[in-house]
Amino acid sequence: MVLPAQLQNNLTPSEVNFLAENELVTILPRYTMQKMQLIGTKVPALRAMRRESVPLWVALILKSQDKCSIIPPKWLNVAYLKDKYDEEVRKPNQFSALPWNWLEISKMLLARASDDLSDPSHLLRSVLQDLREIRLVKSRKGLKELNESNIVLNGLSLLEINELRPFVLTVMNKLRQLHDTSNAQDIADQDEYEDGGYDDDDDDDI
Amino acid sequence: MSNYYDLDDILADGEKVPCRFNMTVPGLGYLEGNPGKQINKDSKLELPFWLAKVLAVCDLQEESGNSFIDIASPEAINLKVLNAIKTSSKSVDLHKLLPNYYKLIERWCSMYSDPEITTIVMQMLKERSFEINNYASNPNMGVNNDFIYSLDEYEKKLYKLTTESNKQMRSWLRD
């Protein structure tokens, strides 16, 4: 294949970021525009000072031309995120529920629409950084529990899963291969004795 | 399990294992360094794994249960090494032991099912991969450290993949 090996099985962070740009956000337009029918999506007709939801990439373009202001999502404020951070501290064995794209969206909004956010951006940045770090430490710790059959990723966002994926996949594949070697022999032995009886329990530790 | 185009697979197949011949074979003396002579019954020598595997599985005569050669366990899985792995998996120099350690274990265990070895090696993989992840996520830790040099080929690949992914993530967060 032409694609470099590291791009074949995994998305890069910028690709994940690109996907997140399709998320809908609410904007407050400052001018009127007719609706647009695009191939993948529809941009509704905009009327000045009437709230409308549009894909994030449209919102960012309009924002950069000063034609709208973005209403920040309800989770992007210091109080809410602080709450989530406390939840992370309280429950050391699980991840708190954050939006699937929280890293990407918060980064884009902080970089390009920081004047629309309800809290000063340096405070937001620091609480986001805290959240990211505590979750990173947790997921690292969770890697101790890797096994050949399953992994629980409840509460992790796409970007965080994406970051772990190359490591987890490689290790789990190897574990599975090693595990299968002793299983394959069991099955072969059983076949010999039971004349093809196939009621083995090779899923005993799932 | 093996991939025809994978160089590491080929190298793992070429790894030598100690064998003992169960019969005298004429003309095979060159394996021991005596070209043109026969190879005697009970002579011991090291054969590449791909050759030993076939010879050890083929029966000498039908129903005899004897094969051309017996394979002794290679150095990499003798008791001493396994004990070393059990006590501290992170300080074992896998690369020195066998550059394709996991591959050989896989092949060995699928031939002679040995749940004990599999369990030990899986445990080792879990511990070592955790350590590899630590090294990969901290760029300053890998410098001048023996652990990185003791990785086998598979672990090196894992280290590279993980470092790469962490690097991408860091550079995305920065810009």
Summarize the structure.
Chain A is mainly alpha-helical and 206 residues long. Chain A has seven helices and five strands. Chain A has a domain at 1-71: Ribosomal Protein L9, domain 1, CATH 3.40.5.
What does it look like?
The complex is a heterodimer of chains A (206) and B (175). By secondary structure, chain A is mainly alpha-helical. Chain A has a domain at 1-71: Ribosomal Protein L9, domain 1, CATH 3.40.5. In chain A, 50% of the residues lie in helices and 9% in strands. Chain A contains seven helices and five strands. Chain A has helices at residues 5-8, 13-20, 56-64, 78-90, 102-112, 121-142, 158-194; strands spanning 24-29, 36-37, 42-43, 52-55, 68-71. Chain A has a three-stranded antiparallel sheet with strand order 4-1-5. A two-stranded antiparallel sheet of chain A has the order 2-3. In chain A, helix 4 runs parallel beside helix 6 (121-142). The two termini of chain A are 35 Å apart. Residues 195-206 of chain A have low confidence and may be disordered. By secondary structure, chain B is mostly helical. Chain B folds into two domains: 1-72, Methane Monooxygenase Hydroxylase, Chain G, domain 1, CATH 1.20.58.2050; 74-175, Methane Monooxygenase Hydroxylase, Chain G, domain 1. Helix content of chain B is 51%, strand content 8%. Chain B is built from eight helices and three strands. Chain B has helices spanning 7-13, 49-57, 79-87, 94-97, 101-111, 115-137, 146-149, 153-174; strands at 16-21, 44-48, 69-71. Chain B has a three-stranded antiparallel sheet with strand order 2-1-3. Chain B starts with 6 loop residues before the first helix and ends with a helix. The model of chain B has no long low-confidence stretch (mean pLDDT 84). The chains are: A mainly alpha (206), B mainly alpha (175).
